[in-house]
Design goal:
The complex is a heterodimer of chains A (171) and B (363). Chain A is mainly alpha-helical and 171 residues long. Chain A is built from 8 helices and 2 strands, in the order E-E-H-H-H-H-H-H-H-H. Chain A folds into 3 domains: 45 residues, Wheat Germ Agglutinin (Isolectin 2), domain 1; 67 residues, no CATH class; 46 residues. Chain A has a two-stranded antiparallel ribbon with strand order 1-2. In chain A, helix 1 runs antiparallel to helix 2 and helix 7 runs antiparallel to helix 8. The radius of gyration of chain A is 20 Å and the shape is elongated. In chain B, a hairpin with a 3-residue loop joins strand 6 and strand 7. Chain B is globular. In chain B, the strands form 3 sheets. Chain B has an 8-stranded antiparallel β-sheet, with helices on one face. A two-stranded antiparallel sheet of chain B has the order 6-7. A two-stranded antiparallel ribbon of chain B has the order 10-11. The N and C termini of chain B lie far apart (49 Å). Chain B has 2 domains: 258 residues, Creatine Kinase, Chain A, domain 2, CATH 3.30.590; 87 residues, no CATH class. Chain B is built from 14 helices and 12 strands. Classes of the chains: A mainly alpha (171), B alpha+beta (363). The interface between A and B is large, with 42 and 45 residues.
């Protein structure tokens, strides 16, 4: 997707603004986003700076210790070599494995874009069996935490063993 | 290049322009697009020319499988085989994206286009994702478009190993497309809502309901031809069926609003509207110089006249075709040379006069 404003650079900032019940969606590149921030920043009580940085660097932004260059600051995908910074700049991932490597750190971004982090649609034929297994494991995990909550520890132990068994089949 | 594609790049007409389809008084076309990645390759942005070539090759093999070839009668062409003006013809006919033509990250030799004989199905190879499977239908038929794209996808996945995550579904280069990889859109003509200055309010509501709105052929909502595209914002979470039914439901409400607005124009200001429509027709029928935005505006007015029953004997299909034919790309293609903007204006007017030559409107 190209930036709506300059129509030249790829859009890496997907920005939704709700003012008086009017929703505005903007898909901007980094440069235009900064300019937009300047334009909107004036007189707006909301701290747009941190808001936009959060959107722009979803992965890095997810780290609490963002300032003191933590140990996984320079995380790269081991399959294609894409660095976090490059993703933040371009808004595009490098390969299918990037989603695994960056894993849960992409989830806040997916939630912001889609309001969800779980696929419920079509599944390719060759992935169906594994898909069902993963679904089952997730269901059992939810049941497990419910059992723990209710202090039904016998049931919880059963569930834990069942999950273990299924997870072995997954790897 | 085979005959089919030669025809495609020289002829402005495409089946999505047909008008014997549902709700063509307001809806011009419906489109479904599936983004798919090949598991074994980096995404196109990071592909070496050799690997990019392998992607094209893999798709070439997959479309030759009898299940696919007998169903779609496909043809594969590389952008490098097409003259620049022919590439832009495909853009104007909505068969490929403008970004596909201009993208620098991949050579034109490794940009592939698969096109079915009836132009309803197209696959861009090595655009932002390895495959962009697109189905394009006339009128309001988003479900049919999704079905066709889905059918192609199901056949292709027998040969191609699409990257899929058990949690987030089909993975794509941009996180905005993951999950279903499905973007469904409809192109709407909303002149009465624009005239009554209600379009902004309605489209804002539509956005709140989770659809994206874009004005076509113009800046923002000031669309020259009063054309607007609605599409789903979200691809991850809801199923394909949910996505398409939501788009269709909301689109039907917008259609109702536009029809109501047209009725209001008819009862409250019949003379003003008729005058506007007839003037538009008069200019198109008789002008010797026409600008590109001007022609879009006038064609929109005439289409409104056809939709409201004021102008008889004009097929909406002709007007859609003229929208493509009056673009600079088509004018250059048919004249066979570069044209200066004033020359284009003359060519454009001649083409429209010719198209409207035998049309008579009765009062």
């Amino acid at each position: 997707m190209l930036c709506e404003r300059c129509k030249q650079r790829p859009a890496s900032v997907h920005y939704t603004e709700v003012v008086n019940n009017r929703t505005t969606h903007m898909h901007l590149c980094e440069v235009c986003a900064w300019e937009a921030q300047k334009a909107f920043g004036m007189g707006t009580p909301l701290n747009l700076h941190s808001f936009l940085v959060g959107l722009m660097s979803p992965v890095i932004g997810a780290q609490e210790s963002g300032k003191d260059a933590g140990t996984d600051r320079g995380l790269s995908c081991t399959t294609c070599g894409l660095a976090e910074e490059a993703f933040v700049k371009q808004g595009l991932l490098g390969c299918a494995d990037c989603y695994r490597h960056f894993g849960e750190r992409l989830e806040p971004l997916l939630r912001r874009i889609h309001g969800s982090t779980r696929h419920t649609g079509k599944v390719p034929q060759r992935s169906r069996q594994k898909y069902r297994l993963v679904q089952e494991v997730e269901r059992l995990k939810a049941e497990l935490s419910a059992a723990v909550e209710r202090e039904e520890f016998e049931r919880a132990a059963e569930l834990r063993d069942e999950i273990k068994k299924l997870e072995q089949g997954l790897t | 290049m085979a005959m089919g594609l030669k025809e495609t790049v020289s002829n402005a007409y495409s089946p999505w322009m047909d008008d014997d389809a549902p709700e063509t008084d307001v809806v011009i076309s419906s489109r479904a697009r599936l983004a798919r990645s090949l598991a074994a390759f980096p995404f196109p942005q990071r592909l070496s020319p050799e690997k990019a070539e392998q992607v094209v090759h893999a798709v070439a093999l997959a479309i030759r499988e009898p299940a696919f070839s007998s169903r779609f009668d496909p043809e594969l062409v590389r952008l490098a085989e097409l003259a620049p003006v022919e590439r832009w013809m495909l853009v104007e006919k909505h068969l490929i994206s403008p970004g596909f033509v201009t993208a620098q990250h991949i050579g034109d030799q490794q940009k592939g286009l698969v096109l079915s004989a009836d132009e309803q199905l197209s696959i861009m190879v090595n655009e932002e994702d390895h495959l962009r499977i697109q189905a394009l239908f006339p009128g309001l038929q988003p479900a049919a478009a999704v079905r066709l794209a889905d059918e192609a996808d199901t056949i292709l996945e027998k040969t191609l190993d699409f990257a899929f995550s058990e949690r987030i579904g089909y993975v794509t280069a941009c996180p905005t497309n993951v999950g279903t990889g499905l973007r469904v859109s409809v192109m709407l003509h909303l002149p009465a809502l624009v005239l009554l200055e209600r379009v902004k309010e309605i489209l804002t509501t539509v956005t709140k309901l989770g659809l994206t709105v874009r004005g076509l052929f113009g800046e923002g909502t000031e669309s020259a031809g009063h054309l607007f595209q609605l599409s789903n914002q979200v691809t991850l979470g809801p199923s394909e069926a949910d996505i398409v039914s939501k788009l269709e439901t909301i689109t039907r409400q917008v259609i109702d609003q536009e029809r109501t607005a047209r009725n209001q124009l008819r009862t409250q200001m019949p003379a003003v509207v008729r005058d506007r429509i007839s003037r538009a027709f008069g200019i198109l029928r008789h002008a010797y110089v026409l600008g590109s935005d001007e022609v879009m505006r006038l064609l929109s007015d005439v289409r409104l006249g056809v939709g409201m029953g004021f102008l008889k004997g004009i097929r909406p299909r002709l007007l859609t075709e003229l929208m493509v034919q009056t673009r600079a790309t088509y004018l250059v293609k048919t004249s066979g040379r570069q044209l200066s903007p004033p020359e284009r204006g003359v060519f454009r007017a001649a083409l429209v006069r010719q198209a409207f030559k035998d049309i008579v409107i009765d009062d």
